[in-house]
Amino acid sequence: MTPIDIIITYDFICPWCWIGHQSLKAGIEQAGMAGRFRSQYQPYELNPDMPKPSSNRKAYRSRKFGSWERSQVLDAEVAAAGKRVGLAFNYDRILVTPNTRLAHRLMRYVLDQDAARADDLFSAVMEAYFTRGQDIGSLDVLVDIAVSIGFDAAGVREYLNGSAGETSVVAQELQAQFDGVRSVPTYRVGNQRITDGQPPQHFARVLQAAAGEVENM
């Protein structure tokens, strides 16, 4: 049976993208459809002008939200939502806000080399940043993450040191905007679009409907 594609539009700096990814996986299990769906990753940079590799998080978030105290309130809300789906957000460890272009290029590399490991990379990058507080704008950090899921360090480093994947990432981001994506996470399953942090049961209903449409074609 041909897998049904789920197009996931995301950014590695978006905590709700990680929470949504966890809910999506739970929704697939609830629907009893493991193996029926295949994730396709579409990049979307929330901060494309962020200095490379990263900026001081406290200064950036204080400017964005008006105060560091307001930022901490929002972080606490995210951490609570993450805990409900089994994810650990350790914001006290996060010192920088990264430019995510390099991480998206790494995803392009993984998709080209072994697309079956894209889900592993997604989770590994998110955990590195939100749980361990690592700078995912750093080439060295991204190489280590790729190695942790089975890729060769030299090959990854050579790819990221050049400009490979840059054109593809930019083209996919433009396509997302053309398709009407205005926020992340956004999920597209057949003709259905899911946005924001939906619970597993919502994903399960949409996935079951999409599978039914395919079977009736």
TrEMBL record:
Name of this protein: DSBA oxidoreductase
Domain of life: Bacteria
Residue span, DSBA-like thioredoxin domain: 6-208
Any GO MF annotation of the entry: oxidoreductase activity
Pfam families from the UniProt entry: DSBA (PF01323)
